[in-house]
Amino acid sequence: MKIRSKLLMVILPVVACFALLPGAQAQVCEDGCGSNFNTFQGDDALISIGAGAGNTAFGWRALFFTSATSFNTAVGGGALALNNSNDNVAVGAAALLTNTAGADNVAVGTDVLVFSNGSDNNAIGSFALFNNIGGSSNNALGFDALVNSLGDSNTAMGDEAGTNVVSGSGNVYIGAGMQGQASDENDSTFIRNVGTTIQVNDPTTPFFYVTVDPSTGQMGYDNVFVPVANPNGAVLELKSTVKKQQATINELKSTVAQQQKGMEILTAQLKEQAAQIQKVSAQIQVNKPAPQVVVNKP
C-alpha cells in the first residue's frame, strides 16, 4: 500500500499541472450547473467541459479533462481526472484517475481502476484492479482484488482475491486471499473453503478435473483437453445408451406389472376354489348317515 500511495503522490501533482494549460483557470471550490445537464462542485471539477452532456463531478479536478463526452459521474479528488470517454462511474479519490478512452466502467473505492483504460470493468474496494491498464469485462469485489490483473473477463470476490494473476483471462477467484496457480492461467476457477466433498454438474463442459486441498479446503477447477476424437459424439453416444437402458427398465416394469396382475387373478381363483371346497365339505358332513349300534344276541 505504501508503494501505491507514493506513486499516487507522483501522479496527482502531474494532474495538477494541467491547470497551467491554456484555457484552464484556477478556481476555488466552484460549484454550479453547466449547460447540457452538467453539474460540478470542486476546484477545477469538470472545467474543460464543452459539448458533453449529463456529466456530474464532485471533488478536486474530478472529470478535469472531460470535454465532449457524456454521462460520466465522478465523486472524489482526481476521480476520472483524465477521462475523455462515456458512461463511466467513479466514486473515491483517484478512482479511474488515468482512464482516457475506456467506457462503461464502474469504480467504487480509493484508487480503484486507477490506471485502467479498458471498458466494461466493475470494481468495488480500495485498490481493486489497481494496475489494470487495457483489460475489459473484469469484476473485482474486495480490497486489492485483482490488483495486478491486466487480462480480460476475470472475476474476484474477497479481499486480496486473485492478486497473483497478471496476464491471464477468464478466471474466477472466490474467497479472501484466494489465489490461483499461475500468473498467466486462463479459464480457471478457484473457490476457498468448500470442504472435501463436492458435486459438479456441468453438461456443457463434460471434460474437466476438480482438485481439493484437504489441508486448506481449497478447490481448483480447470478445463482440460481429453484425447477423444469427437468429445461431443462420445457424449451423445452416452446419452443414447442411457435412453436404451431407460427403455429396458420401463419394459421390465411393464412385465412385472403384468405378472403382478396375473398373481392377483390366480390368488383370487385359489381363494374361490378353497371356498367351494369348504362348502362341499360342509355338505358332506350334513348328508353323512348317523352311525348305527349293532347288538350281538347270545
Commentary on this structure:
This protein has a domain at 230-282. Helix content is 24%, strand content 15%. It has helices at 2-16, 231-287, and strands at 31-33, 39-41, 56-58, 73-75, 89-91, 106-108, 122-124, 139-141, 155-157, 172-174, 188-191, 208-213, 218-223. The chain has a 13-stranded mixed sheet with strand order 1-2-3-4-5-6-7-8-9-10-11-13-12, with no helix packed on it. The longest helix is centred in the last third of the chain and has 57 residues, at 231-287. Mean pLDDT is 79; it is low at 18-27, 196-203 and 223-229.
Question: N- to C-terminal separation?
Answer: 140 Å
- Please tell me how large the radius of gyration is: 40 Å
Instruction: Please summarize the sheet with the most strands.
Output: 13 strands, mixed
- Helix proportion of residues, in percent? 10-25%
Would you identify the regions where 5 or more consecutive residues have pLDDT less than 50?
18-27, 196-203, 223-229
Number of helices: 2
Looking across the biggest beta sheet, what order are the strands in? 1-2-3-4-5-6-7-8-9-10-11-13-12
Entry summary:
The protein is of the alpha/beta class. Helices cover 24% and strands 15% of the residues.
Salient structural properties:
298 residues, alpha/beta
List the helices and strands and how they pair.
Layout: H1 2-16, E1 31-33, E2 39-41, E3 56-58, E4 73-75, E5 89-91, E6 106-108, E7 122-124, E8 139-141, E9 155-157, E10 172-174, E11 188-191, E12 208-213, E13 218-223, H2 231-287
Parallel strand pairs: 2-3, 3-4, 4-5, 5-6, 6-7, 7-8, 8-9, 9-10, 10-11
Antiparallel strand pairs: 1-2, 11-13, 12-13
